[in-house]
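May I ask for an example protein's residues together with how it folds?

___
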Amino acid sequence: MDNGKRSELVEDRDPVAGSTRSSGRARRSRAARGGVAAAVALVVLGACSVTETLDTAEGKEKIKTGLESKIPGSTVDGVSCPEREINKGDVFECTARVDGQPLRIQIIQDDDEGNITMKPVQAILEVKRAVAYVEQEVGKAKRSAVTANCGTSRYLVKDPGTTFDCPVTTKAGRAVGRAVVTVKDVEGNVELSLA
């Protein structure tokens, strides 16, 4: 098996696996609230016209719905973002939980109007695609059909450079070895080796 074999285990490049820039102009209000980023647009709230902060409530909901639309069948909750003043070029992180696993999302403020760009900090891998990839590659290397077990979760959230194991057996249940899958980047590209 080629240790340098790469595969992409995510389907889209979007708020989950790519960059997304919000569009539209921000709306102003007098109430001051915490800060957050959103997949489509942010609402701006001013504090007595002295300081403007990003709207937490609406932004959190947009992150949640954006992730759920890009990660079918997942449960997204626990979206959290720090309170931030509107400041072009400001970079910060929000977090969410995807199927119980923490996910970090980098937010960049594009301008002084509340427009932002979201970039993933971690890869989201679909487990059934990882299993199919491991079974295909190990099966080719061993010249026989194999079964891989990469876990019971629907998705895995992993940092680039980290690994996860998938035990591999023959279709008859005899142990073949352990596939070590290394996450190469936030797009979900991986390398595979058999231990």
